[in-house]
Amino acid sequence: MEKKDYDMEGEIRLWGTYVPDEAITAVQDILRSKWLNTGKQEALFRKKVCETFNIPYCVAVPNGTAALRASLAMLGVGPGDEVISTPYTFMATNTSILEQGATPVFADIKYDDLNIDPESIKERITDKTKAIICVHYAGNTCDMDEIRKIGRENNLPIIEDCAHAMGSKYKGQFTGSLADIACFSFQVVKIITCGDGGVISTTNEEYYKKLKQYIWYGVDRETKQTRLLDPLPDDIDILGFKYNMNDIVATLGITGLNNFDIPMKRRKEIGERYRDELAGLSKVTLMNYQPDKTPNYQIFPIHVEGREEFAKHMQKYSIQVNVNNRRNDRYSIFGGKRDLPVAERVDNDAILIPIHSDLTDSHIDRIVEAIKEYDRT
Ligand SMILES: Cc1ncc(COP(=O)(O)O)c(C=O)c1O
After folding, report:
1. What separation in Å is there between the alpha carbon of 93 and the centre of ligand 1?
2. Binning pLDDT at 50, 70 and 90, where does residue 199 land?
3. Measured between alpha carbons, how far is 340 from 288 in angstroms, rounded to an integer?
4. Is 231 exposed, middle or buried (0-12, 13-18, 19+ CB in 10 A)?
5. What are phi and psi of 58, to 5 degrees?
6. Considering only CA atoms, which of 129, 77, 75 is closest in space to residue 105?
7. Does ligand 1 come within 6 angstroms of the Cβ of 107?
8. How many angstroms is it from 377 CA to the middle of ligand 1?
9. Taking the CA atoms of the chain, what radius of gyration do you get in angstroms?
10. Is 352 in the pocket of ligand 1 (CB under 6 A)?
11. How far apart, in whole angstroms, are the C-alpha atoms of residue 189 and residue 64?
């Protein structure tokens, strides 16, 4: 049988999952309480998300993909509409546009940080454009001043895809309130996890009210009535999804947020050490981390010369490295390859090296030494 990526005896893994001890007893308590549905824990989870990231409003959903789709639906994105997005991301960013029957229009990216290029966004705006999605790739935030300006000038809402960017900052402000709407993922390899989970945050109260309806059959669960016969409203005029988060999942999110600083601190130590030790190599180029952007080091991509050779070299030392994402337009579901020279270059030379809170200092020594050795050969 082929070896699975979760069966790696002794290898240094690319991904890790952080679960604080308190999660185990907290989930037991919820199971014993017999209230497993969306309830007090879900409300507390949302409150903690707002407090932790300084966000005015948020709703909780089952995953980041659902967050993106519900956001697009709430904005009225549908068949015939275009959404400008990045091709260099996990496909969920863009399948959510297809799920709404709309068309992703791919802008090119910047080589030095893998984020969407604001100049390329401008070139792709048409009268069919309904929204712009930007992904803070690897937790290194996008050029938000420029992107917000484009949004304002063209009256287009901006969705931050924060699946990589929980706890990242732009000019001192957390992601999640840098634009109109933001979508977070609490999937297993994220800095903290719900197993699977998602959050949609917004700075717009009207959007918030509508989002509450879109994530549960068109009904705001908090305004359900206590009528004897029928707690639902007399009429439902929004076609919503079944995207509520239950209290078991929310409990994992709460305990994760209670301990958020622990994995963040470890990732920062590792990220800074890589930046220190790997700067100035000849076959490896680091991303550009600008001083007004504070990354969370969700992942650590590098550009490398001879990517396949590099992967073989790292494999010799039992260090897992791989390509995280491919330019999405190479997948036929998106309708064929576009002319995106920078995305093409990145698609051939970007690779991830391990970063997560399970890595020890001696793991990092091994990784750094192996990369330096590759660079010398
Ligand atoms: C950039 C990006 N957007 C969206 C998602 C989807 O998140 P989820 O797996 O929670 O649905 C991911 C998943 O990791 C992602 O990397």
Report:
1. 7
2. very high
3. 20
4. exposed
5. -155, 155
6. 129
7. no
8. 36
9. 21
10. no
11. 13
**What's the half-sphere exposure (Cβ side, CA atoms, 13 Å) at 109?**
29
Long-range contacts of 345-350 (CB under 8 A, 24+ apart): 345/111, 346/88, 346/109, 346/111, 346/114, 346/303, 347/88, 348/307, 349/303, 349/304, 349/305, 349/307, 350/114, 350/301, 350/302, 350/303, 350/304, 350/323, 350/324
- Sorted by sequence, the CB contacts under 8 Å of residue 17 that are 6+ apart come out as 188, 189, 193, 356, 358
pLDDT number for residue 1:
46
- 55-73: burial string, b at 16+ Cβ within 10 Å, e else: bebbbbbbbbbbbbbbbbb
Q: Which positions ≥6 away from 327 have C-beta within 8 Å?
A: 87, 88, 337, 340, 343, 344, 346, 347
Contacts of 256 (CB under 8 A, 6+ apart): 18, 19, 20, 23, 186, 192, 193, 194
Contact 193 CB / ligand 1 (< 6 Å)? no
What are the strands of the beta sheet with 300-304, ordered from one edge? 284-285, 300-304, 350-353
List, in order of start, the domains of the chain with CATH numbers.
22-258 (3.40.640.10), 261-376 (3.90.1150.10)
The pLDDT tens digits of the residues spanning 92-139 come to 999 999 999 999 999 999 999 999 999 999 999 999 999 999 999 999
Helix axes 307-316, 361-376, angle to 10 degrees: 130
* Element containing residue 273 per DSSP (H, E): helix 261-278
Distance CA 248, CA 42 (A): 9
C-alpha distances out from residue 230 to 38, 95, 218, 234, 243, Å: 19, 37, 16, 9, 21
Q: Which of 113-117, 134-138, 175-179, 222-226 is predicted least confidently?
A: 222-226
Ligand 1: distance of its center to the CA of 95 in Å?
11
Give the closest residue to 16 by CA, choosing from 136, 165, 190: 190
Using alpha carbons, select from 125, 136, 121 the residue that is nearest to residue 89.
136
Whether 62 and 82 have beta carbons less than 8 Å apart is answered as: no
Q: Does pLDDT of 75 surpass 50?
A: yes
